[in-house]
Amino acid sequence: MLYPQRFTQFSREHADTVAALLCGLLLFFGWFALHLGWLGLAFLLLPAAYMIGGYESAREGLTTLFKEKELDVDLLMIVAAIGAASLGLWRREYHLIIDGAILILIFAISGALEGYAMAQTERSIRSLMSLTPDTARVLHQGREEEIPISQLKVGDEIVVKPGELIPTDGIILSGYSTLNQAAITGESLPVEKTVGAEVFAGTLNGYGALQIKVHKPAQSSLIQRVIRLVEQAQTEAPPDQEFIDRFEKGYAKIIVVAGILLATLPPFLWGWDWETTIYRALTFLVVASPCALMAAIMPTLLSGIANGARQGILFKNGAQLEKIGKVRAIAFDKTGTLTTGQLQVFEVISVSEYTKDDVLKTAASVESSSEHPIGKAIVQAASDLNWVAAIEVQALPGQGIVGIAQEQQIIVGNAVFVQQYVRNLPEELQKIAQSWEQQGKTMVWVARGVEVMGVIAIADEVRSQAAATISRLKKLGVEQIVMLTGDNQETAQSVAKAVGIDRVYAQLLPEDKLDVIRRLQQQYQTVAMVGDGINDAPALAQASVGIAMGISGSDVALETADIVLMADRLEKIAVAMHLGRRSQLIVKQNIVVALGFIMLLIVGNFLGNINLPIGVIGHEGSTVLVTLSGLRLLN
After folding, report:
1. The 451-462 sheet, strands edge to edge
2. What pTM, to 2 d.p., does this model score?
């Protein structure tokens, strides 16, 4: 019973693919039956191939005709296929029925590929919805009670324990903790929050228990606004798609009207007999069918997608391969994109009587008892050194940590905290620390007893290939490169200077990033966004091309983006742009060849220099030619 259920589920989720496969199988066996002279079996299989493969196109074409009073390529394809089959039956040239079935199969495959691309929106929204818990722990008359998020009301008090996700936006009533907000706001460091501070749904609570008051409806939370922004951005049709739709409808109108005129006027104008007239009209519909025109695009884009996949670039659909080649402006997220998103020890400065290793070992002895990301970075930097964990360790959130090591008190923390224990902070170290803080570094002072040993600079490491990537993009002609981040202005400017970006937008919420992308699109039309976090999802969806980091990227960013850099290698953006530009060139060449063949066959048919078999050969030959041309992008 399990296998039938799986097949039913698969056929429901991939109906277009199943239809294309069945159409292809029926077409093959129908052709084989004709080849063996089994006409009865062939006339059973081939109509089934027509119906299964052409049902969706016929339904869409007829719906467009009757509801919108428009003709489209779907309907034209059905008319051409049926015309070829009818002519084949009339003249007993049964191979023409095969030609009509091939036309249907080509469109069935195209429809299946389009269906997979359209499924991205629904998956993106489902991923966003999974970022917040389904329930919240509410305080009711002194007792904790779990209720669905949808039942939360303004004024409710909820409890969030260490390591849990914040279920909704609110204000802290009691407690102290660090919150990891990187996925929502893009801040690279966990943020310390206490009574009176606002917290956001979907952020991760650190070591402290919090009591939070709901101050807005759950549907108005920041994460819910992100969801709505993604929905809105992904449903907006890009201008290129609108142009393609208009061209398709216009082409179909011209061909259908021309076919009708060719089927009725020649007997009156030139004295053709009706058999010749109908024969020429049906041949016209076959040779004018836009299969070669459609094949001019998809094989090229699919080849480019395969080429990109071999190089660690995942294009989610062919349209984005074209668009990446047209990009005139690129916006980069900072944390996790231009930087690694992992805190590391940037530099250590010691006073004269101590070494850098002494400072690191001393700091690690107390930080080994801490769960704070800064402490973990220090312990990681001292992993190759010999040190002994301190005892009687006590952490003061937001200030520092103290403990006893080798019978001496160790103090590690910010300048204000350490000053309470030492005689003074060396002026030279203070100047260095101030300079680093202006560059966005976090300074950690280390003292033993009453003497300062040194200072440690903590920073989010810039990706090694970031500067070279920015330089390469500028050489490729990208007119504007900007940075978008939720971090403070000083940190953002220091990273931008290191990688060669001149324009920075700092302290942005997700909707602010979306606004910047929209303004860039007004000025530069085709804009790419590169990001990795939940906070980047609206901007990734709005951008002409959304590019996500494959390893460090959140599930939402990966689902929302159009292109994924599977190995987080920024230099692949330039490779993707080169592929996009090559695909544009090949597509243009193929379109010229396809239209040239169509025009040549139409003229030849009108002058009576070709018959239907030659027309079909020319039609299918041009399709094969442009398909092979598109495969050049595999190299």
Report:
1. 339-350, 451-462, 442-448, 408-413, 400-405, 391-396
2. 0.62
